[in-house]
Design goal:
The protein is α+β, with helices and mostly antiparallel strands and 508 residues long. The chain has 3 domains: 7-34 and 158-401, Naphthalene 1,2-dioxygenase Alpha Subunit, Chain A, domain 1, CATH 3.90.380; 39-150, Rieske [2Fe-2S] iron-sulphur domain (Rieske Iron-sulfur Protein), CATH 2.102.10.10; 413-477. It contains 14 helices and 19 strands. The longest helix is centred in the middle third of the chain and has 35 residues, at 303-337. It is globular. The two termini are 27 Å apart. It is found in: Membrane; Plastid, Chloroplast. It comes from Pycnococcus provasolii. Keywords: 2Fe-2S, Chloroplast, Iron, Iron-sulfur, Membrane, Metal-binding, Oxidoreductase, Plastid, Transit peptide, Transmembrane, Transmembrane helix. One of its GO terms (molecular function) is chlorophyllide a oxygenase activity.
């Protein structure tokens, strides 16, 4: 039977301690945080086709990335000539990015502009932004000049720094970066939104609290580390825990976008690790990049197979975050209009001992989110307001959970599988029909095992066609209906049984 949380006494656990930096120095570093002087993972390498312009977005600013066999470069997605989208253009045989409107082209290494109509004319160079490949990801630094030189290098775990890292998960979600980050490090929600008992090992309790520390690494990145014994906290038992020699569950956030989670033994070894890079594409929208791996092992399930499960997993709580977002952003923008700071511990009600990590990151977000480039342009510009308006409303789940626009359209492997599945479904269905027709003819003329064989092969083809059609539906549109949501809700009591008459509210 599940053990209820005493919310009245659990608030004693929500305290933050600083590991290697004092409170005053941490506050000073956070207040001067510059989002533009940070490297951002914007895509998996395999999702950017060679010699094809690729559009990506950071802080509501569109960039175009070009990957050639020997280089990768980026510039604003607006031609210096007439501001047409360069992502609609092409890459020339010598690697220049050419606008489709008037043919102006840009040298990737220098930014020099070639004008077909004036080959001897002098045109100012285009602004190029630092770009690199590391850990299987394409990284973009949205600044230039001296700031680019002094920016800390992009962070990937040491075991992923080699060149042949397999691509992981990608999904564009209509969720603000701040809410997505809080969701990823909120382990209390896993038992209810996802019905997965493993989340309980990362939660906190009075007996086994989350130990949280904040610091700055050698490159000046803000870091929050949480550790706790990998034992049941909310549930009485957990099949994933090892009570004889409990592991330590840990979660780490490194600014601006990296999160990792794993369970390790006394020697610091882990059998599996999950890492995330959360991309702040704009107000009310983000890109979710993630990868789960076993250190020392390079092979895993095919990427499209992983996405079959991960998309279902993300569908379970993404719409809930959208329903929350309109209220939180309204509070934030109201505070900005009144020139007041937003305090998340006043907007939310922190009550669980499993929210210590959330509280620590929330304090960092309170100070740094207002410094995001163009964050509050909507308070001064009608055009900016129109761009972010959808973030302040709750769209139907058919829109907030559309898998084609959010995932398949930006994942090369899923696109390829979708094409193959469509062809296979048609071919298998046609083969089944032909075999069934031939089976009827054989039955009339010969009978016996020949007919049975034709019917058996026809059934196999029908099965292949049905599976292929199912894969098509998984990658091509909306799947998480209200009926599917209700089925999830019915699974909650299997982990956390309903307890009539038991109150979980704090006493006034």
């Amino acid at each position: 039977m599940a053990r209820p949380i005493n919310l009245r006494t659990s608030m004693r656990s929500v305290t933050i301690k600083h590991a290697t930096s004092s409170s005053s120095s941490s506050s000073s570093s956070t207040s001067s945080y510059d989002w533009t002087r940070q490297w951002y993972a914007v895509s998996w390498v395999t999702d950017i086709p060679l010699n094809t312009p690729y559009k990506t977005t950071l802080f509501d600013v569109d960039y175009v990335v070009v990957r050639t066999p020997s280089d990768v470069y980026a510039t604003r997605d607006a031609c210096p000539h007439r501001l047409a989208s360069l992502a609609e253009g092409r890459v020339t045989t010598d690697g220049r990015l050419q606008c489709a409107y008037h043919g102006w082209s840009i040298e990737g290494d220098t930014g020099d502009i070639h004008v077909p109509q004036a080959p001897r004319g002098k045109v100012p160079c285009a602004t190029m932004y630092p770009c690199m490949v590391k850990g299987g990801l394409v990284w973009l630094l949205p600044c230039e000049g001296a700031d680019a030189v002094t920016a800390p290098p992009p962070y990937v775990p040491e075991e992923l720094e080699h060149d042949d890292v397999a691509a992981g998960v990608v999904r564009d979600v209509p969720i603000d970066f701040s809410l997505l980050l809080e969701n990823v490090v909120d382990y209390d929600h896993g038992l209810f939104a996802h019905q997965v008992s493993g989340f309980d090992l990362y939660c906190g309790s009075l007996d086994h609290p989350q130990e949280v520390s904040t610091s700055y690494d050698a490159d000046g990145r803000f870091e929050v580390t949480m550790t706790t014994k990998a034992l049941p906290k909310v549930l009485e038992t957990n099949s994933l825990s090892d009570t004889a020699s409990p592991l330590t569950a840990t979660a780490i956030f490194k600014s601006p976008q990296f999160v990792s989670a794993c369970r390790f033994d006394d020697e610091g070894k882990t059998s599996f690790k999950t890492v995330f890079w959360l991309v702040p594409t704009g107000v009310g929208r983000s890109r979710f990049l993630s990868k789960g791996y076993a250190p020392g092992k390079k092979k895993g399930l095919p990427r499209w197979v992983q996405h079959l499960f991960i998309n279902r997993f993300l569908d379970q709580d993404s719409h809930l975050l959208v329903t929350e977002q309109s209220y939180v952003l309204a509070e934030e923008f109201k505070a900005a209009a009144e020139k007041k700071p937003l305090k998340r511990d006043r907007v939310y009600r922190y009550a669980s001992p499993g929210e210590k990590l959330l509280a620590a990151i929330g304090k960092w977000l309170d100070t740094t989110v207002p410094k995001q480039p163009g964050r509050y342009d909507a308070l001064k510009s009608v055009a900016a307001l129109a761009r972010i308006a959808p973030a302040f409303t709750t769209a139907p789940r058919e829109i907030t959970l559309d898998r084609w626009s959010q995932h398949t359209a930006v994942c090369a492997d899923s696109q390829a599988m979708l094409r193959n599945a469509r062809w296979l479904a048609c071919i298998a269905a046609a083969a089944a029909a032909c075999l069934a027709y031939r089976g009827v003819q054989v039955l009339a003329s010969q009978g016996g095992w020949y007919c049975v064989a034709h019917c058996a092969f026809s059934a196999v083809c029908l099965f292949v066609s049905a599976v292929s059609a199912w894969i098509v539906t998984e990658f091509s549109g909306f799947r998480k209906t209200a009926l599917s949501r209700d089925a999830d809700l019915r699974r909650i009591p299997t982990l956390f049984p309903d307890q009539p008459g038991v109150s979980h509210s704090a006493t006034p």
